[in-house]
Amino acid sequence: MKQILNIKTQTKEYSIEISDNNFSKLNQEINEATKGQKRLIVISKKVYDLYYNKFDFSEDELFILKDGEKEKNYKNYIKIVNRAAEIGLTRKDVMVALGGGVVGDITGFAASTYMRGIDYIQVPTTLLSMVDSSVGGKTAIDLKEAKNIIGTFYQPKAVFVNINFLKTLDKRQFLSGLGEVLKYAFIEENCGYKTALYLFEFLTLGCEKILQKEPITIIRMIEYCLNLKASVVNQDEKEGGLRKVLNFGHTLAHALETITKYKKYTHGEAVVYGMFFIINWAYKHEYISYSDYRLSMELLEKYGFKPLSKIYSNEKLIEIMKKDKKASDGKITFIIPVSKKRVKEIKLTPQEVYYMLEDGERFTS
Ligand code: GLY
Q: Residue 247 CA: which ligand 1 atom is closest?
């Protein structure tokens, strides 16, 4: 089974292939997409250990990156561009990101800055990178002060989403990806893309098959998410407005990831905590109805998610939020729900966020 979606931004058009092709076909597709180009393939260590023998890449064209968000740093970025220079990549050449979001983000950033920008191809191997970070051209590295604080908007040449990688993805990482999938259900009406069945209902009805990784359901689910994402990115590539809705749950999530030095929570886990928090807050402050609040909570709980039980210093979280890219004029941006499928942006002063976090503590388990 194979689905092709198209991204058409102001800067680039490219296609996303979602398939369950076998790895020899994927290998062939990567070779065709990079034909005539010298390549630097940035591959996650886990993916290298599990899948290297499925591809005909030579050792010389590989850069193996250890796993974990803490690897998305400037030291590894310098190593990648150094390696590109050592093997003689020119402006006509290409980088390939073969791994999860960390590999995709850092490779995209390296490709966008090496010789002022060369091609790169995304081959995401985790659910989270398949449904979100490999598409839309956000590239980044982290500083210890803030996540994704250095980066560019730079679209890939192509994206190959192959769901066979999910077979070996561990449960925690799979659920982490589902956190981002659920996010799309809560923002669906903002995205400007309509299907016969809303993602919210699809995820409610399909929960069992999704948790069992049933291939056709997983392909449909990824296709839903990427159609929503493509619609948003096509309208607002550089996050002037609409694209901000993709950050639902992310203001608290980024602060949680930063305060724990990117070691304690996966990105998707942090996003789930951020969503629980903001849905609860929005209900308490009468932005959403009781029934939408309950249905939203039930969807999160259906997938086994629970609110955060650990409490961090509100002052420290606010200090981190103030450094977030989305903060401006001394205010912190939150995307809040106004129904179970629609969100809006609000800006709060640090003092208001303090009260918000104090409120939120009552909603932890
Ligand atoms: N992950 C959010 C975005 O791509 O805008």
A: 2
